[in-house]
Amino acid sequence: MCSRKGLVVVVDTASKVRDTANRAYRAAVRALRTVNHRARQRWRATTPHERQTVRLTAVAAALGLVISAVTVGAAGPWDSGQRTAERARAAGADGRSGTDHTGEPGGPTAAPVLAATGPLPGNRKADGAGGGSGGGSRQDGDGDGDDAAAGTGGGPAGQVPPPTASALADTLEPLLDEPSLGAVRSASVVDAASGRQLYTERSGAPATPASTVKLATAVAALTARGADHRITTRVVGEGSRVTLVGGGDPTLTPEALGDLAKKTAGALRKAGTRTVRLGYDTSRYRGTDQHPIGPNENLAPVTALMVDEGRLDSSDHGPAPRTDDPAGQAAEEFGKRLEAEGVELAGPAKAHTAAGGAKRLAAHRSAPLGALVERMLTHSDNDIAEALARQTALATGEEASFEGAGRAVERTLRRLDVPLKGAVFADGSGLDRTDKVTPALLTRLLVRAADPDRPELRGILTGLPVAGFTGTLGSRYGGERGEPGAGLVRAKTGTLTGVNTLAGTVVDADGRMLAFAFMTSGAKDPGAAEAGLDRLASTLANCGCRDSPSTG
Fold first, then answer.
1. Residues paired with 521 in a beta bridge
2. Domain that includes residue 362, residue range
3. Of 188, 380, 429, 521, which one is the catalytic site residue?
């Protein structure tokens, strides 16, 4: 009979053992979760080619095991490591032992074993009942079902599921935490097909967008005017006065002025006019022509009349020396062209507002607005951006000025049901630091541009620079860095001192189109900040960003 003291000791010892076992179990579970989480992160960070290699290797290994099992099964049944049929034959042959066939010349060879795999198709149902087959089906369904669908390319893109929020978070957060991006970072990733928000990091916080605000400028202009609208530069006459009237086309060329001069000279000859007083009209725009940043190689004074964006060199995009009087320069060039056509000028061209009833002598129309939007986005053209913002103002009845254009852009975007809380449109180009937009607004604008029911906005997507190939991304994603996003990322860049932004689209590894916006400020090294943004976009482009097979 056990004493009470002995019983207490036994119970105490059992309790300690149980507690120790529970602690060990919890520790093992925590360790397993950590390993599983790290495995998921590593899986999601791999490139599509690496994933495909892993999958093919796994499938090949599984197939090899299945073939081995079938081959062994077909050669059986077995008992204690020896085929039963072989042992029976050996036992019945001349009384020789079934356990020693070293002298048996008729032992199994490769041919009979391979021949035994012949009936396999007829035995699939039986083979499928085994546990091994079930495990293979679960692996295929959990790990590769979506990838297989995406890889065939036979179904519509809508059948490919979008990335999961947890997978995107695991993939993007470590990159967004890089110190090189600066003190303030925000991000938004949206599925372009459904409009579903997939990832957000302060996506509703207004921030300085720099040139990514051109996305808002473009959407507003195309919505208000339409992709086919053209800006007209006119020449009108009243008696002996000829006036060149600016319509707001910053892409007007000397050649176009030459064509206008030729047509004007023809009309004057028909009217019997040989000598004219030349004037130029910029009344289409109101307010100051000076951007808050002042004279700058990134932007000419904003007027309704200019030639080649007021450039003083042969460039057609990017920073360049600019004239301080674009309208006067255009009028002077037009006068020279008139004289070359035999028209005499009574003096130098002067600023003048054309009379309402003046007769049209000639006209030149710009490229369609859709083409101007593409050019603006590809090269981040500030002059075109300011012109497009004023086209929005003119279309909505606002004053064609910095202030009026800002009101018009906001009013037009409000019609599209996009998040405008905290938005400020101080200009159309993004050179003004008081501009404010959110990552959520930028991605929503891109989703609107991808909407099949809004074909007038398509130029926004086609105008985005292509990583490593065109526009402001032409020199990025290549060279020594060699990011894998080259050719895959299409995005609008934004850069001011201490401000770096990137907003655009990618088609991810599973064929799903995603819209993204990454906005940062406070970076001390702009090159490092750009590289960080490029890594974010590249990773998004190369990531299927759904659960790995290990998460089952």
1. 184, 499
2. 232-366
3. 380
